[in-house]
Design goal:
The protein has 221 residues and is mainly α. The protein has eight helices and two strands, in the order H-H-H-H-H-E-E-H-H-H. 73% of the residues lie in helices and 2% in strands. Helix 1 runs antiparallel to helix 5, helix 3 packs parallel to helix 5 (114-129) and helix 4 packs antiparallel against helix 5.
Length: 221
């Protein structure tokens, strides 16, 4: 049940949302207003570019979409299950994401579009890494579904049904982390441009280390 949600899920979810919000803010400021943490905007822009007869821009956007899918595929290959559970190889996935973000930064510093695709792949990897916990959708790279679920729960409350306070808290934590990451990403980009990706890359690596230590201590001797 969601009420049995362990603290590590809330803390980890906040950190991951912070990372994704930061990466997406840097992308919006540096990639001609193209986000990479979710695909809704890029999919719409792809349709616009196709309608306007801009094949070069359309191919670029298509590669961003495919890179996100590729990142998710890597996560599925490494972790092998959609159910969030302590003991899975999240540390490996997090280290892979950190490395991809560092490569993205290096490519972007050189002016290569490959950096765009790598940043999108990193977000796809992270989004696929944590899918559900006890029936609660745990998405850390976008907040549309979280706001939708909050609205649904508000509507149920107006009908007189009890509110799931623990799930509401989880969603608010994820939303707060994503927005907070956006603030940090924008501030970092203003001072360090694409080198601001060092922040989310470093935090991802640190989170991997903390998870590996925590998992080792929790495992029975």
């Amino acid at each position: 049940m969601i009420n049995q949600l362990p603290r590590w899920v809330e803390v980890g979810g906040f950190c991951l949302a912070l990372i994704a919000g930061s990466v997406n803010a840097i992308a919006l400021l540096g990639f001609n207003h193209q986000g990479v943490s979710h695909l809704s905007g890029s999919s719409s822009l792809l349709g616009v570019e196709l309608a306007q007869g801009e094949p070069g821009a359309a191919v670029h956007l298509l590669l961003i979409l495919l890179s996100f899918v590729l990142g998710a595929a890597v996560s599925g290959c490494v972790i092998g299950n959609q159910s969030l559970k302590l003991g899975r190889r999240y540390g490996v996935a997090l280290l892979a994401e950190s490395l991809v973000l560092l490569l993205a930064m290096a490519m972007l510093e050189r002016g290569s579009d490959l950096g765009h695709y790598l940043a999108s792949a990193a977000c796809g990897l992270q989004n696929a890494m944590t899918s559900t916990y006890s029936g609660a959708v745990v998405r850390t790279t976008h907040v549309t579904g979280l706001f939708t679920d909050l609205g649904i729960m508000l509507g149920l409350k107006l009908r007189g049904q009890p509110a799931d306070r623990r799930r509401i808290l989880l969603y608010l934590i994820l939303i707060g982390g994503f927005i907070g990451g956006g603030v940090l990403g924008a501030l970092g980009y203003a001072d360090w441009h694409y080198r601001a990706l060092l922040g989310p890359a470093g935090l991802t690596a640190l989170l991997a280390l903390v998870y590996l230590i925590y998992r080792q201590r929790r495992q029975p001797a």
